[in-house]
Amino acid sequence: MPYWGIGLCYEQKGMYQEAVDQLQKAIAVSGRGANSIASLGHAYGLAGQHGEAQKILAELEKRSKKTYVSSYQIALVYLGQRQNDKATPTKSIPPYLPTSRWTQDLTSCVQIRVSKICYVASACLRRIRAG
To answer: Which helix (H) or strand (E) is 78 found in, with range?
Structure first.
């Protein structure tokens, strides 16, 4: 958890390569869970490493043929690459909600989730440093 949370904090600060480094450590420690690799794919996209983000998308798509992968996780990787049109799963959006609004809501949801995780990660770091 600490590496993942710290990675998301770096991402929020615009330190994308540092975020990638921390998220890679999180995956090395905890395995290739869909949420972890989606977060890494998002950071790759923000860091301009679109080839690596595409590899993550391919992994998630392949995994989704065998087990459940949330459309949120796939959308997260697309949002990192600024491909908002591909981040919108149109089949699951109610007809009364414009897709641009759905993308805005998803982006807000990601920011809120990351803010909460950064708060927890900061508290963990303070405890670790305090000994």
So the answer is: helix 71-80
